[in-house]
């Protein structure tokens, strides 16, 4: 086959979602954000809800998520996305309202907003990228940074005497009566990506079916911050992050549990 | 006509609500009114006071340094407000708990044994209405009918059965006030 | 009388007016002396009638960000608080200004700094008109001096906010919030339909339609050249507001030899002081800025040619006096009189201050 044959529309075997535009992403090679963005785009298109979706971007690496997905967005102040989402959902209950937040945003500066939004139970979705580090500001310690893990602000490794313990915030959120679906996923293998996509779909369906808060944590790599190659970062995540943040559903009150 | 009134006593004596009923009564009579409380924790004990102004003209300041009439329900308030009454003005006080009688001679002073009377009537909650009755006897700034209408406005519907008792207290107050 | 006259607190008037002007949502957190706003709304339950949402947030920070979120979808939303709570809201207010969102903030001021006191104060003038949050921005600031104006300014503030896509603030204080006066509430105006909102606010994030680009509500721009132009755009907008939206009231100024300048509750007390002083034969007038930003600079400058001196009467240590001095530019003496910490001056005190400071 010539190149001309290969690029004929009838020979198309894959295409990126329409709402994912051609703007080059600012994410580092190997970063998990791009994959998660694509999953969100795919699910929104498959559900046919692009016109009814309002996303909220955080402060952190994903601050510019609004540049890559052609949906309507609001850009939050650091940590405040869940409060905004609650208000938007109350004022526009038929919209699919989701936040996209990192660990510093959701589990440090925005802890109060996160917990109260999850406790109130408005049907919003929280996509939570947990890579145990502040990527955007240059690799400082996050609330989810593992014990002994080195960052710019714990250069000798996280010392729990000095910095406290890694915050398993998703475990906390599952205890709240307002959450209906709390799950922890990853996107480091093809199989994991498929599972993560199912979780996002379920969370978005809960959103439109007014079932309560759905939290999808994606345990992710930050190879730049971790100072590892993308491949090594995946290995490191499996060996170190997964034992602290085990994958699977933590809570599902919607009636059809997916993974354990 | 403008009547500038301070009502002062302990929190829980119904100082603010008496002021409110007076303000509503003024409203019913078509007057301009303002009701300015000393707000905050004072409402829950300690001293409480409220400035009520009834006027035929637009009211400027809701906060005053001198009053036409002072209604005083405890010693602290007497110490504080006796000197703020305008010459020729009126002081009405309940002697219950008063240890140092008022001394000014350039104002009209009236006593009303409202606390004792309220206890006698077994209607302790009508204490402030007895006082209000006394005020209206001395300074008939609003008509009793408008006070009753004002009461209806301030009381929630479920308490409207208490209005006759309050009317009785008002009339009792008019009876017992004296120089 | 076509409209029923009611007697209520300034805080209650805010709540009633919000429902009546077609507001879509209120987000607040209790703090003295403004808690009656939230209490009144919760008692009325407007979601059962007009469909207006009311939510007690977990903090003032959450509340202002709820306002930001709601305003970003074109809805008419407000929050209210008192000084320490408004300090917490400054982050969100700066974001609202940066993203050019119409919204209303109500500050029923109490004394500070810090936790301060719950008694009335006007010490948040600087915070309101000089910034408060970070960055070069302005809030349209209205200062009500009566319960009636508390009611009237809710609708006015929203009109201005939407006209200019800019947050507006009602700067009241404990006196105006807690006092009861007669008020004629504004007539009921229905909430806008989603179609009307999309027409009026084509910028709103309501879900991207196929026939338009995505709408992004943001104050972020990392390209300095673009960001400078965004700032220039804001400054041009502020200039337009300064040219068109100055509001003030004059009281007995025609023949005045001395001038009080005061806003909010202080203006009410000054009005009485004017009456008492004139009874003593002193020709004093009162200029009351209704918009604190834009400030009535020209009106005050005009009186610099007429009066001998001015007294800025504020419940603070001297804040608005700086703007008055800028307006008169040294032509006449401008002094300040204030009380601090929650003490409110009486009319007599103001007259004494006038005699001591500017006569």
Account of the 3D structure:
The complex is a heterotrimer of chains A (260), B (179) and C (359). Chain A is of the alpha/beta class and 260 residues long. Chain A contains 10 helices and 9 strands. In chain A, the strands form 2 sheets. Chain A has a 7-stranded mixed sheet, with helices on both faces. Chain A has a two-stranded antiparallel ribbon with strand order 5-6. Chain B has a 6-stranded mixed sheet, with helices on both faces. In chain C, strand 14, helix 12 and strand 15 form a beta-alpha-beta unit. Chain C folds into 2 domains: 180 residues, Thiamin diphosphate (ThDP)-binding fold, Pyr/PP domains (Rossmann fold), CATH 3.40.50; 108 residues, Rossmann fold, CATH 3.40.50. Chain C has 359 residues and is of the alpha/beta class. Chains A and C meet through strand 1, strand 2, helix 3 and helix 5 of A and helix 3, helix 4 and strand 9 of C.
Notable characteristics:
heterotrimer; B: 179 residues; Pyruvate-ferredoxin Oxidoreductase, domain 3; 6 helices; 24% strand; C: 359 residues; alpha/beta; Rossmann fold; five-stranded mixed beta sheet; 15 strands
What is this entry, summarized?
The complex is a heterotrimer of chains A (260), B (179) and C (359). With 260 residues, chain A is an alpha/beta fold. Chain A has helices spanning 3-6, 33-47, 81-91, 103-109, 111-120, 160-163, 169-174, 190-208, 223-226, 230-244; strands spanning 53-57, 72-75, 96-102, 125-130, 133-134, 140-141, 179-186, 213-219, 248-252.
Topology:
The complex is a heterotrimer of chains A (260), B (179) and C (359).
Chain A: H1 3-6, H2 33-47, E1 53-57, E2 72-75, H3 81-91, E3 96-102, H4 103-109, H5 111-120, E4 125-130, E5 133-134, E6 140-141, H6 160-163, H7 169-174, E7 179-186, H8 190-208, E8 213-219, H9 223-226, H10 230-244, E9 248-252
Parallel strand pairs in A: 1-2, 1-3, 3-4, 4-8, 7-8
Antiparallel strand pairs in A: 5-6, 7-9
Chain B: E1 2-10, H1 15-28, E2 32-37, E3 47-55, E4 67-72, H2 75-81, E5 85-93, E6 108-111, H3 114-120, H4 127-138, H5 144-154, H6 163-176
Parallel strand pairs in B: 1-4, 4-5, 5-6
Antiparallel strand pairs in B: 1-3, 2-3
Helix pairs in contact in B: 1-5, 3-4, 4-6
Chain C: E1 5-9, H1 10-20, E2 25-28, H2 36-44, E3 53-56, H3 60-72, E4 77-81, H4 83-98, E5 104-109, H5 125-129, E6 140-142, H6 147-164, E7 168-173, H7 174-178, E8 180-184, H8 194-200, E9 216-217, H9 224-244, E10 248-251, E11 258-261, H10 264-279, E12 284-289, E13 291-293, H11 297-303, E14 309-313, H12 320-328, E15 333-337, H13 347-357
Parallel strand pairs in C: 2-3, 2-4, 4-5, 5-7, 6-7, 11-12, 11-14, 14-15
Antiparallel strand pairs in C: 1-8, 6-13, 10-12
Helix pairs in contact in C: 1-2, 1-6, 3-4, 10-13, 11-12
